[in-house]
Design brief:
With 279 residues, the protein is α/β, with parallel strands linked by helices. It has nine helices and nine strands.
């Protein structure tokens, strides 16, 4: 019987950020099932000590937590990034705390943890797997802070690859829309993407990330599904076409009243000359 490609993670020493979230907790479970030595970082630690307390916006906390994790693991073979937030914002408004948090967590949190882990990764010729998003190249209304931060994360991974890629692997994974609590803010604001874009399963992202971590040679960029791969190629090679299609789709959504659940959408409706529905 052929060995699973994920079997290469057996015995690997793995650090996972956002480890108490949907993607991170599922990945830790699979990693341990595969025989990997895995430790997580999250603002919400667990009682068993498998997930260490760490706020990725705090440099001192990152240094302490990454140091404790690598000491416990005895080195580091893989660093997997899942920590992220997704606020609903109007790009026409001044950047607020939600915008700053998106940049601090999604971009600078990834940067801080990677920087703290680099000595161990370099010593063991390890690999970094960065979770970006298809929204980095396919922007949607009110996801601007998330989109900007994930585009920046993609650029960070590319720059890291150029500067350190001779000694460590760097892969960027681009999931699509997955129904997880990261969308709670947009739901609360009444501008949820639920049902507006093709949904992927949580397992699609988890498996894409773990396959990237297990592969003999690190891929540069991967998506979670075949449809996601097509979307990734389109956003990379035909951005102007993507812009035109997105403009048409957004106008249609506004006319259909599918982005009218909260006050944040009022300006969008006014720009399109479509009254907000009552209620």
């Amino acid at each position: 019987m052929p060995r699973s490609p994920l079997g290469a993670l057996n015995g690997r020493r793995v650090l996972v950020t956002g480890a108490s979230g949907a993607f991170g907790s599922a990945s830790l479970q699979v990693l341990r099932h595969l025989g990997a030595e895995a430790v997580g970082l999250d603002r919400k630690p667990d009682d068993a000590g498998r997930v260490l307390a760490c706020d990725v916006t705090d440099e001192d906390a990152v240094r302490r937590a990454v140091g404790a994790a690598t000491e416990r693991l005895g080195g580091l073979d893989r660093l997997i990034h899942f920590a992220g937030v997704g606020p609903a914002v109007d790009l026409g408004a001044m950047p607020d705390q939600c915008v700053r948090e998106a940049l601090e967590v999604n971009l600078l949190g990834t940067w801080r943890v990677t920087a703290a882990a680099l000595p161990a990764l370099l010593a063991d010729r390890g690999r970094v797997v960065v979770t970006a998003s298809l929204l980095a190249g396919l922007p949607l209304p009110f996801a601007g802070a998330y989109t900007v931060s994930k585009r920046a994360v993609t650029a960070y991974a590319d720059a890291l690859r150029a500067e350190y890629g001779t000694h460590i692997g760097v892969t960027t994974v681009h999931p699509g829309y997955v129904d997880t609590p990261i969308h709670d803010d947009s739901r609360a604001a009444g501008v949820s993407l639920d049902g507006l874009v093709p949904a992927e399963r949580l397992r699609d992202t988890v498996l894409a990330v773990l396959r990237a971590a297990a592969a003999p040679r690190p891929a540069r960029d991967v998506a979670s599904t075949a449809l996601g791969s097509a979307a990734l190629r389109l956003t990379r090679h035909a951005p102007g076409l993507v812009d035109r299609v997105a403009a048409v789709e957004i106008a249609d959504l506004v006319r259909e009243g599918r982005l009218a659940g909260g006050e944040i959408a009022r300006g969008l409706h006014e720009r399109h000359g479509v009254p907000m529905p009552p209620g």
